[in-house]
From TrEMBL:
It comes from Ziziphus jujuba (Chinese jujube). Keywords: Repeat. It comes from the Eukaryota. The keyword Chloroplast does not apply. One of its GO terms (biological process) is RNA modification. GO terms for molecular function: RNA binding; zinc ion binding. PPR repeats lie at residues 194-228, 297-331, 398-432, 499-533. Belongs to the PPR family. PCMP-H subfamily. Residues 714-806 form the DYW domain. InterPro entries: DYW_dom, E_motif, PPR_At4g14850-like_plant, PPR_rpt, TPR-like_helical_dom_sf. PANTHER family: PENTATRICOPEPTIDE REPEAT-CONTAINING PROTEIN, REPEAT-LIKE SUPERFAMILY PROTEIN, PUTATIVE-RELATED. This is Pentatricopeptide repeat-containing protein At4g21065-like.
Amino acid sequence: MDQMLLTTSRTSHLPLPSMLLPLTCQSLHQPISSPKLQLTQFPHQPSTCLTTPHDHPTSIQHTQQIHAHMIKTHFDNNHQNVPLTPFLSHLSPAAQYNFLITSYNKNNFPESSLQIYAHLRRIDFQVDNFTIPSVLKACGQCSWVVLGKEIHGFVLKNGLDGDVFVHNSLMQMYSECGSVVSARLVFDLMAERDSVSWSTMIRSYVRNRLLTEALEVVREMHIMHVKPSEVAMLSMVSLFSDLADTRTGKAMHGYVIRNSNYDRLRIPITTALIDMHAKCGNLSSAKRLFNGLPQKNVVSWTAMIAGCIRCNKLEEGTKLFNKMLEGRIFPNEITVFSLIIECGFVRALELGKWLHSYTLRNGFVMTLSLATALVDMYGKCGDTRSARSIFDGWDNKDVMIWSAMISAYAQANCTNEASDLFAQMVDRGVKPNQVTMVSLISLCAEVGALDLGKWIHLYINQQGVDVDLILKTSLVDMYAKCGDIDGSYRLFSEAKDRDICLWNAMITGFSMHGFGKEALELFEEMERLGVEPNDITFIGVFHACSHAGLVAEGKRLFDRMVGSYGLVPKIEHYGCMVDLLGRAGRLEEAHEFIKTMPMQPNTIIWGALLSACRLYKHPDLGEVAAKELLELEPQNCGYNILMSNIYAAANRWNDVAGVRKTMKDKGIKKQPGLSSIEVNGSVHDFVTGDRAHPQTGKIYEMLAEMTMKLKEAGYTPDTSVVLQNIDEEEKETSLNYHSEKLAMAFGLIHTAAGTPIRIVKNLRVCDDCHSATKLLSKIYGRVIVVRDRNRFHHFREGSCSCGDYW
DNA sequence: ATAGGGTTAG
């Protein structure tokens, strides 16, 4: 039978009977465009009856045959023809159409369903409240929200909005299209709700990562005495497992115990709870449930072992794996798949390799999905070579494995490899999905590749790739991190639905660029709209206060974070406050603040104080901070150098020599400076004094020209920075050969006059490069955007957006 | 004839 189905389905692709014109805007009275709708010719096939007794009534073959038969017999005109099989004959014409639509939906041919709908509207057939839900489902499957909205209008106009099925399917459609606000609107306006309405609302919030809202609906549902069925309960638990935190996980557990009688689905529900607890980081609860299970099957073992690995209890996981084998329960493909994926999650390369060899030794068939899991794991562990060898060993590659390999390169910051692979993928006609796009876009953000990022954005728009909130957030983040804050804000302001991640991306983007005021205004707007900030929001907000020098505002917000929002400040938040006080020159106050912290200060805290001491030339307090830092991380060269700079600024040359000697004795090397610049879609890297680039000659000529022009403009090198250099030889490659200057020279050669130059650096910009770049921006009439480790500098006409304060 | 949902992947 399978063979039969297989051969038939090869010969008949997407059906499009000739009577159905392309579904266009005109046919529905308003402009609608869907790049997804691919129209094909109706295949030349005889419209005979069901050919085999094995054909399921809703198989795609059968569906197409019925469809073709209806066309051939002019079903539309007389509505009398007995269809192909007796079981449809008792149905009304409307029901027969609906049968076709649902069959196409079930076979994952939503485009065909929509063709039929368009046809019905064209011939003025009365579309009833039974058909609308099926059509909306097809819209959801295509993520075609424009058509969905049109149908919503049709529903209201034709008085079909008294039907709970219609409402539920409208909610589901909006949710599938990522428009959770519209789904909520439908939900709120419903006169009558059933249990499906409630679970649909919960699902749409969870899918759009809105945990708080989802939990609120669960609570409301509880108050209204609506109980989910066991199946709904099971699906709810597994839905929440990817999103919940420890507290929420425990609350969900309690909810299940109070509201489920555990009749039929005890083991599945418990297994889902085990999975949820482990993913929430609550391994002990997971273990308690697991141990309490009267019967354990391979699924429960898998969930438990995967949970151990996720919580980084590798030995415990391995022990349980062996215990499972002792109990003669054997892992299946999903078991090894899950465990390999979790190894990637915690970067457990050794265990991952072992599982790889286990599958080979135990006769597991290497499937595409298993290979994908391995590529993913090796990629996450940073072993791009192993990932690539698995990848290359596979012939019929699909989107998933492509995405996994691209993401492996992306995580290793191998921009050119990733973009090459993406090009190959497009060449071979494999359609990338949102996962592919997100990993490419976040790679561009990481390395600052604006051109490539823009190109991919263009591709997304042209190909009609669905832009969900995750992808939108990564785009907003990419534009911001690549220095194009305007592009970032444009996307953000166009977004209709905004979740907390999107708000965070924009707030962080503004503060990273020194637009403290804008960041704070955005935060206020968010509050006005009732969006609840989380701990990440406050990091962005505090940075904004720091950059704008708003000490009082920052302190007030710190109190509100605890008082109004009940958030527990993490060490990062305390670090922000130290930075805020320090940058404002309130060094003693910052020091006092550190003493009142409820936790042990770490390097972030002391580092913030040390930077402030350097800025305000306060060697005594600087010594205190540096001493703490060097105790925590004696090998860190940055702290040593900062300290030596502070001594130099205070003319304490003996102390400078002391730090230098310590560094030499301990063999502490300066972290090499690394800058990159993107030209014509390729990323070029430079280290300090780099001579490896193929165009080295030209670059150094340009550098000489730059130095000359700088001198003419009256620039003198900042000698205090030279003191950073430890070795004598390093003096040779001093100021002039800092990596950002090399990148700048390359940019001046290869970009058109007047266009901005964008550089990404791994360290902080040094004082000397900062003042040189200011002048260079004026000399060459260029906007120069430098992203350093902490923030952006926009150099323009001789000055910098940071106000020389970074 | 219509909407959602079935434990360990994506």
